[in-house]
Amino acid sequence: MRLNGIDIAYDDKGSGTPLVLVHGHPFNRSMWWPQVERFSEDHRVVVPDLRGYGDTTVVPGKTPLGVFADDLVALLDHLGLARVVLGGLSMGGQIVMEVHRAHPERIGALILADTSPEADAQAEREARRATAERLLREGMAPYADEVLGKMITPHHVRALPEVAAHVSRMMRGTAPEGAAAALRGRAERPDYRDSLARVAVPTLVVVGEEDEYTPVDVARRLHGVVPGSTLAVVRGAGHLPNLERPEEFNEVLARFLAEVAPGIG
User: Fold this and answer.
1) The domain containing residue 96 runs over which residues?
2) Is 35 exposed, middle or buried, given 0-12, 13-18 or 19+ CB atoms closer than 10 A?
3) pTM above 0.70?
């Protein structure tokens, strides 16, 4: 679908309360397959590929989180979705925070998975920019090999070879120009704690117990910022609990949706 000057790829499956899930970096909408399969039975599940990822148009340069958020809102408008349950993981969670900051009226409930609301410190900003240059110089394969055991736990790299292969394929299949543009934009993101402190809708904060990128302590701080939020820790999972422990992740999400879904749409 042509929106905001790019072709946005997405899956739209099921009917009922709209559930929109936003993937992280450097992945694509296929990271949500276990959730699409489970929740499209009684919800309308929408999973887009972000600008620069998957089958959506790659735009080199720099993509601020506000641009990702505008793309999402344009997609909601196109689909006729005035108000949704909006969830995201890692960078996807930060994009969700940006949508909430700019368009809180579009959100009936929030799901923030393995993500952090805080702005990058100077060293982190420089590291993201350096990684962007590395991806353009080397391609995605060396980076994908290096971080696989952080995206999922080292144990799951061995014990869940199909999951590991899926995660690796997503990373290796991402366009370096799109990933680099997102890294540059993400380095300049604001601190979302002030806007999150004004959240007035049900919010689920969920994190893998062994997440190295956004550890449980980060999730606890996020939980403390968002009024009335629920915190769930998925045992034995790393940064991608929805893929590493899909049954447990889905159960957490199902309990949350059962409480908040009525009246959203």
Assistant:
1) 2-260
2) buried
3) yes
